[in-house]
Design brief:
Number of strands: 21
Number of domains: 2
Structural class: mainly beta
Shape: elongated
Oligomer: single chain
CATH class of the largest domain: Mainly Beta
Helix content: under 10%
Distance between the termini: 70 Å
């Protein structure tokens, strides 16, 4: 019975060893007997099919070490004192800044002063990794950073029908209740904000003649997501036609499955002959992925 207990204890101890070359079978296992070496390898294998592997990514080890990397493996030019370190990795984008493990979208000027803070709708493809690890002296650590996609594309497609549908010259609008920040360690979207939706006419494909807008978001935040805007007509005749749509239920699962775009389609069925009429947005058809031709 004692032999079995000793064997079990040895097996348990082996499982608890860090992923390192830290087996004490000689006086020192490395050229850095009092410190540890940490190597970080980028793994992009679980990104969406349409995701582009970034040309550059940033590695943070603890509070003081921050470096940018262009290859797939990052080897720091220094060693680390024994202790617990938070390893954070992310790609840098033009419209997202990162502090610790919180990403923030660049604020921008909005078209409506009563709609609160506006953020950029071009957050782009943003990927992160975070892990706490213990570094021991005289050890080499090889960390595989499996990046997660943290932004998601949202496409809105609006068809317009009615007596003056052929006079539509544009659609303008914005969505409230989008995330201005993301704590990617704890997967919490915050800072509810608004984002402009820049609609353009679709010229070909199954949705030719409809109007589409696309944004990249960190997620949604707050209790409600609302689309507000105007249908614009040539020569302002008829006058711009306002509309409001509740997207709260349609975007309830937006913060999951970020590797595929969320596509919402609806139709305004009755454009006005005269002004002072509000558009009636029909129910939204919701699709995930590339099953809807929005191009």
């Amino acid at each position: 019975m004692k032999l079995k207990n000793i064997t079990a204890s040895l097996m348990t101890a082996a499982l608890l060893l860090p992923l390192s070359s830290c087996l004490k079978d000689k006086l020192h296992d490395s050229t850095h007997p009092e410190t540890g070496l940490v190597t970080v390898t980028a793994d992009w294998s679980i990104l969406g099919e349409d995701a582009d592997v970034p040309e550059r990514w940033t590695v943070c080890i603890g509070e003081d070490y921050v470096e940018e990397e262009t290859g797939s493996i990052h080897v720091p030019d220094c060693f680390f004192e024994p202790g617990v370190y938070r390893i954070v990795a992310y790609n840098t984008t033009e419209n997202i800044s990162v502090t610790d493990t919180v990403a923030s979208v660049l604020p921008v000027a909005g078209s409506r002063q009563d709609a609160g803070t506006f953020v950029s709708g071009q957050a782009g493809q943003f990927f992160t990794y975070v892990r706490d690890t213990t570094v021991m002296a005289d050890c080499d650590y090889s960390i595989t950073a499996t990046f997660m996609q943290q932004t998601r594309e949202l496409r809105l497609i609006i068809g317009v029908e009615g007596d003056t549908a052929d006079k539509v010259s544009g659609i303008s609008g914005y969505i409230s209740g989008v995330a201005g920040t993301l704590d990617f360690k704890n997967e919490i979207c915050g800072a509810p904000s608004s984002v402009e939706m820049d609609f353009t006419r679709i010229e070909e494909g199954d949705n030719a003649g409809k109007w589409a807008a696309s944004v990249w978001l960190l997620g949604i935040a707050g209790d409600e997501q609302t689309l507000k805007g105007n249908i614009l007509f040539e020569g302002e005749n008829p006058a711009p036609m306002p509309f409001t749509g509740d997207l709260t239920d349609d975007l309830a699962d937006f913060n999951t499955e970020k590797t595929v775009p969320a596509i919402l389609t609806t139709t305004i069925s009755d454009t006005p002959v005269e002004g002072d009429v509000e558009a009636d947005l029909g129910d939204w058809d919701v699709a995930d992925g590339g099953n809807v031709d929005a191009n």
